[in-house]
Design brief:
The structure holds 2 protein chains of 2 kinds.
Chain A lengths: L11 E7 L2 E7 L1 H6 L8 H8 L31 H7 L7 H4 L1 H8 L16 H23 L3 H14 L10
Antiparallel strand pairs in A: 1-2
Helix pairs in contact in A: 6-7
Chain B lengths: L3 H6 L3 H4 L8 E10 L12 H16 L8 E4 L5 H9 L5 H4 L6 E4 L5 E5 L5 E8 L3 H16 L6 E2 L3 E2 L11 E8 L1 H5 L3 H10 L2 E7 L9 E6 L7 H29 L1 H17 L5 H17 L5 H12 L2 H8 L5 H16 L27
Antiparallel strand pairs in B: 1-5, 1-8, 2-3, 3-4, 4-5, 6-7, 8-10, 9-10
Classes of the chains: A mainly alpha, B alpha+beta.
The complex binds zinc ion (2 copies).
Chain lengths: ~170, ~375
Amino acid sequence: MKCDFCDQKATVFLTQLIEGQMKKVCLCESCAKTKGVTDPTGFSLADMLLSGMPTSALVANAPFVPTRSGGGKKCPNCGFSVDDLNRVRRFGCSECFQAFRPEVELILRGMHQGVTHVGKVPPGFEEIHARDEKLEELRQQLEDAIVQENYEQAASLRDQIRQLELPLPTTTLP
Amino acid sequence: MMRFSTLIKHPADWMIGGEVDNAVVLTSRIRLARNVRLLPFPGWATAEQRRMAMQEIFPVIQELRPMKDAFAQPLSGLTSVQKQVLVERHLISREHAARTEGSAAVIERRQSLSIMVNEEDHLRMQSIRPGLNLRVAYDALNELDNEIQSSLTFAYDRKLGYLTTCPTNLGTGLRASAMLHLPGLVLSDKIGQVLNAIGRMGLAVRGLYGEGTESLGNLYQISNQSTLGESETQIIERLERVIAQVAQHETNARLKMLEDDRLTLHDKIGRSYGILQHAWLIDSKEALNHLSLIRLGANMGFFPLEIARLCDNLLMEIQPAHLQLHSGRKLSPEQRDESRGQIIRSHLQNVHTPAMVFSQTKSPPLSDQPLDLDL
Ligand SMILES: [Zn+2]
Ligand SMILES: [Zn+2]
């Protein structure tokens, strides 16, 4: 039997069960060593090697080396391209998920139990989110008030917006 | 700051079990993946950007209450053997050990909490507990997570949850797993059925296999696959339920062997004892398989119970990097086999020959229970 990563004879076999299917990974001595399979309790390795991917995806799941020359749509924050995303199935930064919404939906199809997060919400996130929605609403009202030349109401809205716009802890770009 | 030698001198709390029942479930592990908003993920960041991310994250971690007197070290400050030892102890991942530029590890004194900075994600946080204790492990990590979030803004999306480099971790970023010792199910040829049943439930079972369904040392890891669409509590409760059932099947299989085939069991344990007490050259695979039977024996009364703890400790100590750290030099595979044999012999020299053990209950209703895990 041949190694899944190169052409040498496989001597190490790693098996994983996914959805009742037994998926086997075969490695040669040297690939096993570089991937750490010779570690007798190599569970951390199994994590890395398999990380929930079917065997066919394993080779694609090799270390993530983006090219920086990828074409197509790019993330405005980090410059990661949609071509790189389709190739390595990894993301470049938090804003990539906005930039590549349709692609994200495709990737997630069938991957997890669901497609919407129902777990932990970061402490304070709901407050920040509620504030952002409120701000959006006030800005809309302000625009309307100006169009309708209702300056008294516009001034009051502007004050409310200023109140809400007090700085929140955010991370700055390098 | 704690030195590497101090960290490693003692086995981790979770390795030796303490008062916790770890006869079948050795350890429970929780891992959370987190990233800082707007900063490029480690795999896409330039070396300079990774260093800057580290400058932002590393001080925050060191200030965490449980990490006050922790081992905190940029990976560039560790030798390859030291990094390998941390991998063998499951404190950092192999992938992390391969990184240097702008990566760091912070490991709590008792080794039950550890954080990798700039692994595949900006933060990979881990909590380990002995026995089946996923909830406890999660609660400890969740507290740490909250504490970090008062200083760093994590990448989070209302619909997708915590945002991660790899889409397989999106949502909770949670990987819960347990390591199980299943010699009873392996010896009674029931392991295949059980593993299949677990797999059908969308959970992953992993082991390092020689051939067929047998794993080295009869050790298996069960973990969740899905991180999105289920809450942390749902993930953990489902996994704990399945693991508890597997553990029950293992216990039943052990008792049934004792009832039906006491001599074969005694023979296997006795042979493993003989080999380990007298082997001068022994590779990992052989050592693990025999230690597995000694461990089984200790948990069934063939040896004093503390021998099971000894086996758990040896599981770590006989790994390649541990052997090299121990001897203070690089060892060839043959030298490692020699050193491994020597360490095992010295630990087992005062262990008495296996006692005779009989089934204690006359006829428990254990015979051929269905192996379906019903949930
Ligand atoms: Zn190979
Ligand atoms: Zn991006």
